[in-house]
Design goal:
Strand content: over 45%
Radius of gyration: 65 Å
Shape: elongated
Number of helices: 17
Largest sheet: 65 strands, antiparallel
Amino acid sequence: EKTKAAKREMRLYQLVLLIGVLFACVDLGLTQGNQVQILKDISISVGGNSVINGTTINNVPLYNQLQQAFPNTSSLPLYNFNITLQTSPPELLIAATTSLWSQWVKFSLVFYFDSSSSLQVAMTFATNYSIPSIYQHVFSSAKHPVVVPSLLRGLTAVSDVVQVELNTGNNYKAVPQGLTVYGAVVLDATSPLRTGPFSLFQPGTESIKVMLDLFIPLWVSANPADGITVSLTEVGAIKINSAVQLLNLTIQACTNCGKPISISGGFNYKNEIQFLVSGYYSAQSSTIGLSGSMVGVWSRPLSIHWLTILSGSAKLILNVGTPASIDSITIIANSVETFTSPHQTTTTTLSMTGPDLEDILIQVSGIQLTHNYRSISSIWPQLTNKSATTIPTVLHDVSLHETATITVSTYSNGVVKEGITLQVTAVHIVNAKSPLLAAAQTLYKPTTTESFTYILTLYIPIDTSSSGITFTLAEITPFRLSKHSFCDSYTLIVAINGGLSISINTQLSININHGSDVLNVSVSGVWNSASDNVDFTGSLQDVWVRPFGIKWLTINTGVVKLSFTNGLFNQISLQAAAIMSFISKTQAVNIELIVAGADFDEWDISITNIPFGHPISDFYTGILDRPPTVRSLHHITTSGNCGISIANYDSPNTPRGLTLTANILLQKVTRSGIKTNAAEDSVYRAAQFLNPHPENFDYNINFFIPIFGPQSIYDISFTLSETGAFHITKNFLCNSFEIDLSLNGATALPIITLSGQFTLNVKQRHPTLQTTQFSVPLLTAAGEQSSLKDVTPLQFSASTTINAVSDSISLSGSMTGNWNNPFGAHWLTISHLSVSLELISPGVLQTIDLSGTGEFNFPKSKSSGSVTLTFDLSNDFSDVTMIASIQNQWNSSATNFIRAVVGREPSRLINEMDWSSSVNILLALSTCSCNSVQEGLTINVQGQLTGTLAKRYKQSTYFVKSPPAETLDLQLNVPIFSADPLGINMYIQLQDNIKLTKDLTFESSTLTFDLATDDLSVSLQTQFLGQFKKNPPLQFYFSGSFSADGSILISGAMMGTWTNAFGFHGFNLSNVIGELGFNPAMCVVSACISDFGFGAGFSIGHTAINFDGNAAAPDYEDIFLQGSIKVGLHLNVLDVCTEWNNLNPVSPVDVRFIPPTWGFIEAGFFFAPESGNFGPIHYNEGFAVYGSIEILSMILTAGINCSEDMPGGCSFSFHVNVDMEKFRKMIEKELFLEDGLTDHSDIFSLRQVQLNSWSQKKVSEGTDPKWKIQLKVFDREHHLEFHVKQYELSSTFHEFYKQWLKHLFH
């Protein structure tokens, strides 16, 4: 070591020698260049090694080192030397003046040894350059311009002077290696630090004075521009708010170093205590956190006389803004003194919030309660600064142990209360007569002063008055309450507010067996010294999984109610939100639950607000974890929210089992060709009987599953109800209906009952009545006209049991109430009606049958009694026929009856009907002519005719061979709903099947007698059947009136269609009419028939043809039809052939060679089963068409018939009459076109023209139509015979002439 020290000293001596030489050089007036050369050349060797070169530092020439700080400076001219040599530590100090950066400065230069004994140099000088100018001089280069970092902008030296330090070594006298600038500077608005972190505390754009500490890492970093550090300190205090000052704020930043801007300084709280803090600034953050430690001791913080904070840390949260504001201050004490003992290790936290930090919270935890502080009375004076005599009495009933926590708060926020709060970890009730013990015994009867240890929480208001003082005693050790319940903890809450109030909060664990998880609840109640009963209300403490073993149910939150009596409870009620796993993992439902019984063995659950929009089958599967056997459940889908009730006993509201109530939709059943189970769509189809689209309705369903037995879970049942009225028909409404389904066993078919409430709107018609001496009081006023406006709604209930495979159903039921005066029949009251409805799916009312009983009363005739009723309904019940049967209770004559019903005197002819001997009367009242009954009131009765009626009856039955009976079935129709209610008709049904000839029959016939006036008229209506050769049986409905001589002409339309007429298959005639005449004079020769004719219509293509025909006497079995079309109509030949082929597909006509443009004009037709004559008309068997047709541009007469023998078909032979004059004129026209002459009679003469051998049969066999032409041309006779293609006949005569005739004239 001595050797090393000697070497260092020697080197300093050598350096002194070097400086001496340097002085000599200066004194000798050497130039700057010579000075540098001398510095370069001088070196001193020690021990033969080059240890030091006076002109180098670390083997680098001195001027090269300094050149990094002073670019473009190859030497430093030194003047006014002042050299000091220091030996301990060895340093050489030089003070001089030199020129730097074009400025003369005074500097000091220190040569020293670093820790590795390397010689280093440190240099210090002052300059008035701005900070950006200093940076530019340091980094100036001839090649590259210098960009000043934004961090250095806006910094200007105060009094134009800053200090600059350079150090080639590391940490010489706290000066780091590199270049350091420090001094007072002005920070203006161009600086990002002014507009950034400084603006938080000093808002505005004015400049501020700060202390600068700038460091540039020369000789340290490869790129000294990276890592520049700027530290700015604002000396003094900055007021943040009324309580806090920020002291000596320092902002530090660096370039390209990856570090945030730091903030440091001290803060002073109300001049009571000071903290040193630091943190980081971020322009993107809304807050800044500053943390640090306390300086000194804080006695009686915030005037709390029993507390001294010896040491601690603090955290200051600033809200970023202009200016910044304090969000909060949190102080955590490491060591405190309290009233119990000094220097306790406690957890003490002090927090301050609010705009001026006025919200203060102090909490001291872990205070050891010594022997002197085991009662409230001993602590009370410390907390309140008042005498212990002010303590409420009940607080003397407890003793304190272990540790305490004291909280003082100047505010309330739901977590803390304004005032003083004392919490003690171990407290005993020491007074056996204390109301605290009595309250605890309400929950658990065996409780004594030794039973439990409590945690005390005592709250004292700021004013420390007894009013408003509350405290709690919390017991946290679980204990058993009963066989199925545990008390996890409970709390006695005592309020002292002019009196004493004790509430009990408790947490219970209840084990309700049945596979349930434990039910944990938190409830509270109010203790009453006058009652042994306390009602508790609260909530679930956590999720209740699988209540009562229901795997799919989880109850999340809810309100619980318990009732304690003498420390026992036996009923639980719960209103909660729950999750049903098979519906949704997140969607909550509402639940109400009651558990009762000594062992909680009776429970009832009601679940509502279930969002289950799925088929009932999914519900069934989710409940029972198995699919249902009734496939119809797949087609019942819930709509909206559902409800479920579950009870394990027959409760007042719920049967034992599970019941689903819901609004539902029925899904439309689709099969896609797959045969389904017979019961698959039973419910949908049951509803579809009433409406074709059950899926469009909303239903209520009550679905029951006996999940607790004794039945099988497959014995399900449900009731589906629909309460919105809808029309089955316009006048038949379903007000509501229910579908009840029950299933016994897994494989049985369901039993379905369909019931409903129905309204039948029957349109009323009132009789037209007039007041006469025969009227009764109930008759309508005089002159009233018939009306359909009134409607009588008849209410019915009906039901049926449906077979799962039924295609139709019948519902039966009865009417509610009476039906008085139906259809204005004042003489009738209907007291009972049974209804039978037949419905077929989908929603079609097939039939409705009404039957019942009533009472009739005709006072004038002294006829009254009971009546049996049946009804026929049609036209959507607008048309009604009511049949009333009266037996052995009728005393009225025909005239008296008409008088009573119509209220007027009828024709005298009514007196000629005698029905007094009749015992059975059938009345039919009908609002329409329908259901085989005429409109009005119809009476069916047996009786005799006398006088004029008897005579005219005999004259009208002369064509009936058997003699008439004396007692007749008479039917009398009174048109009570018409304008002339006395327009009465009497009907007599003649015997059936009256044979006129062997082939002509009257199947059923009726004589009608018009009794409206005394002038009697008689008409005949009959259904006629005729058998004709080669034709099917024809039926007609004929009617007509008899003349005075007994003759009659009856006419009418044929019933149905005349199919395969005349044996032609497919020849069908519609709109056939007929007429038949009778005359007594013809009875000798022709079965009394005087005339028999037909008329019919038929279409060929788009042309309608009208036919007329007759039947030939004497047996009228031969008939024929003759038809024609109107003038100008065109009948297409191809259509005729096509129609024929439709009639005879076995032997069709070949239509390939028929031109489509050919057509008959003004055509006529014949159809006949065989050849014959009718008067002067002769007709041929078969079919014929005749008319005019265009051939070779000529309109010629032609016909088509079946003249050739062709079994089973028609030859379709064409017979054309070629007009020679038309043919000659066509030749003249062609010659005129050649020579222009109009007369060529001297050139040619036409002798004969024929077109024959033409039929479709021959054409199809290859034989074409044949022309035969004989003419003379230039005195030369020509006989031409040639065949032409059929289609050529539809071409022009010009083409025909060129091909066949032109060569004869040339």
